[in-house]
Design brief:
Chain lengths: 114, 111
């Protein structure tokens, strides 16, 4: 068990829907991440909340909106998505100690946009 | 040039074989290195860190070559359960720390 949980595990939504992905870490870590994994592509870092500071990948479209209410919870709010946004969305957490950064991943949410 | 590059494979090897993967990185500010393993339809999990002097964990050996900017993973006596995708991960120190994943190398171990 990784100590990082994600819900829902599977999500199918239309382009006009609004939905949210939830991530919770039970490891006492100080950083949380959202990644997108598409077929045959590297994991793409979308957002980081580290030591209460948010860092984002400027290439992520505004239809993805993160929220981190506390160090244990992370949300990804989705609205007006496109079919190309269909992918596996992985949440991770870590205890940042300088450059040593082992990330623990949740099981992911497999998202399909119709 | 990609920041982290891996041969996507797939590598098809028989049980008991020795197989090696390389991963090249382009940024000399790369400071920490890891190998992760990802099983089909599962999340990535840390396999091992890569230390400057090289390190071994059972059948797995990791090496770092800073001069040529690559890391390697050697698997000896392959098992069927080693079948997975192996992800190279590099952490850059460019004022802040940035984690970069490679696209992975797919390994199939056959009976």
């Amino acid at each position: 068990e990784t100590g990082v949980t994600q819900t829902p595990r599977h999500l199918v939504m239309g382009m006009t829907n609004k939905k949210s992905l939830k991530c919770e870490q039970h490891l006492g870590h100080n950083a949380m991440y959202w990644y997108k994994q598409s077929a045959k592509k590297p994991l793409e870092l979308m957002f980081v909340y580290s030591l209460e500071e948010r860092v984002e990948n400027n290439s992520v479209p505004s239809r993805f909106s993160p929220e981190c209410p506390n160090s244990s919870h992370l949300f990804l709010h989705l609205h007006t998505l496109q079919p190309e946004d269909s992918a596996l969305y992985l949440c991770a957490s870590s205890q940042v100690k300088g450059s040593y950064n082992e990330q623990f991943f949740g099981p992911g949410t497999r998202l399909t946009v119709l | 040039r990609k920041e982290v590059e891996q041969d996507p494979g797939p590598f098809n090897v028989p049980e008991g074989a020795t197989v090696a993967f390389n991963c090249t990185y382009s940024n000399s500010a790369s400071q920490s290195f890891f190998w992760y393993r990802q099983d089909c339809r599962k999340e990535p999990k840390l396999l091992m860190s890569v230390y400057s002097s090289g390190n071994e964990d059972g059948r797995f050996t990791a090496q770092l070559n800073r001069a040529s900017q690559y890391i390697s993973l050697l698997i000896r006596d392959s098992k069927l359960s080693d079948s997975a995708t192996y992800l190279c991960v590099v952490i850059l120190n460019t004022g802040g720390f940035k984690t970069i994943f490679g696209a992975g190398t797919r390994l199939f171990v056959k009976a």
